[in-house]
Amino acid sequence: MADSELTSEAEDMSDSEYMTCDEGNRDSMDQQGRTQAPTTAQDQARPESPSLAQDLATAQCTAASAVSDQGAPTGDGIEDTTPLENILDNEDLLSKIAVMLDQDSNSRKNWKAIATKYGIGYNERKNIEYVNCQNGRCTEVVLGKVVSSNPDITVRDFLVKLEEIGRNDVIDVVKKFYHE
């Protein structure tokens, strides 16, 4: 099979009509890795056995699932079950994180990005900013809201959010605290 044919077939496979990879959800595939019930004439013309593109897509889903099962690479040494509330309970660690995230900067993501990652809307972020930022408590308030709405949130989840916004400096502070 020529490279152009593989590319074309792989592009066809990227459409969600063949396979979804929503956190390991492979409902659209049977046990042998074949797609179920073709829906268009083009689908019906495809061979029933898995193609190279399907194998590649399955491998990508499997790899993505394996990474999500292992947790974020940033959480090394921190147990998956360590509640985020532990950070709120430790004044020293919380103040170090707050100093870093409460700074308003155009070049670095701050508490607003964390709030957004946890689904705190624009109006609520503006309210937090208006009421709490003069006291330097924005990060504390955001983390408090996150913990109160979902007590099962872990430190590892927080590290993932920090990694997503590119705040490895804050990740290092948290890791250092838990390794001491």
UniProtKB/TrEMBL annotation:
One of its GO terms (cellular component) is plasma membrane. InterPro entries: DEATH-like_dom_sf, IGFLR1. Gene3D superfamilies: Death Domain, Fas. Residues 1-53, 64-83 are annotated as: Disordered. Residues 1-15 have a biased composition (Acidic residues). Residues 30-43 have a biased composition (Polar residues). It comes from the Eukaryota. This is Hypp4240 protein.
